[in-house]
Amino acid sequence: MQKFLDFEKPILEIQEEINKLLLDENSDSKLKIEKLEKTCEELKKNIFSSLSVWQKVLLARHPMRPYSLDYINLITDKFIEMHGDRCYGDDGAIVGGIAEINGKSFMIIGEQKGRNIEENIKRNFGMPHPEGYRKSLRLMKLAEKFNMPVVTFIDTPGAYPGLGAEERGQAEAIAHNLQEMIMLKVPIISIVIGEGGSGGALAIGVADVLAMLEYTIYSVISPEGCASILWKDASLANLAASALKLLPENLLELGVIDKIIPEPMGGAHFDIKAMSNNLKKFILEETKKLEALDIKKLLENRILKYKNMGNLFN
């Protein structure tokens, strides 16, 4: 059963009416269904054209929002998941492996959340440990060896800040990924599919093309964390969200990201198949452009992209 946010409840009520009418096969029901579907689409347009920044943050964290494995299963023809960092263990918060899309090989890596208590324990609520980042780097180096483009899906509140993670070198693992990704000799495409939180997102987000889905966020800190630091009150997260400029349109204007990928009306969770088709098309198109460049030019462009980031006079 779908879980809806408060501002989505009017849509849920209409959909429930439609579901009831679908059980009735008479002609009057069909006419009513058509009217209700039209009303539902108009309602979606009205609601989603006037969302506040905080409502968009909630959409990025939507409990029914598609996660990395949802997209991987829909956009790939084959996917072989690979495990472990060959150092400590396997981190369920990061999934990755060799995939085939339209006959072409890719290395796909994504941060993975869970939908229930058991899954969230396994996935650590999408917060990777150092071994997760080391696993992702191991897979990227494998992709480099076999000349496969790398695609990463970013969706995390942030890297896990627990004692064990710090003892195993969380900061070093993130920093090592940044160092290696900037010089990786294959195309890299990174896409924010939900939350892009802090170094946890950046550790798999150094890319030739960095894109965000329409209703996602990408920030140095969560709104709650920012409010706790600035005002000693996490309940002021909605104010912090507005100040952080964490939406795709803000980050495109600032030059932090390169593209915004449209979502179906109401968000990706309303039509995961349509969203997956958009993602698949985007990945194939951008890969084709990047593979047209020789490696030297690819790396030059990548380095220049990050060198100029934040330069307001460029």
Walk me through this protein's architecture.
There is one protein chain. With 314 residues, this protein is of the alpha/beta class. It folds into 2 domains: 6-50; 56-307, Alpha-Beta Complex (2-enoyl-CoA Hydratase, Chain A, domain 1). It has 14 helices and 8 strands. Strands 1, 2, 3, 4, 5, 6, 7 and 8 form an 8-stranded mixed beta sheet that branches. A hairpin with a 2-residue loop joins strand 2 (94-101) and strand 3. Helix 1 packs antiparallel against helix 2 and helix 6 runs parallel beside helix 8. The longest helix is centred in the N-terminal third of the chain and has 22 residues, at 27-48. The model has no long low-confidence stretch (mean pLDDT 93).
Helices and strands in order, then pairings?
Elements: H1 9-22, H2 27-48, H3 53-60, H4 68-75, E1 78-81, E2 94-101, E3 104-111, H5 117-123, H6 130-145, E4 150-156, H7 163-167, H8 170-181, E5 188-197, H9 198-202, E6 209-213, E7 217-219, H10 223-231, H11 237-244, H12 248-254, E8 259-261, H13 272-291, H14 295-308
Parallel strand pairs: 3-4, 4-5, 5-6, 5-7, 6-8
Antiparallel strand pairs: 1-2, 2-3
Helix pairs in contact: 1-2, 4-13, 6-8, 10-11
Major sheet, described briefly?
8 strands, mixed
Morphology: globular
The figure for the number of domains is 2
- The total count of strands amounts to 8
Percentage of residues in strands: 15-25%
- Mean pLDDT across all amino acids: 93
Number of helices: 14
Share of helix, binned:
40-55%
Tell me the name of the CATH homologous superfamily of the largest domain: 2-enoyl-CoA Hydratase, Chain A, domain 1
Q: What structural category do the secondary elements indicate?
A: alpha/beta
> So, CATH architecture of the largest domain?
Alpha-Beta Complex
Poorly predicted ranges (pLDDT <50, ≥5 residues)?
A: none
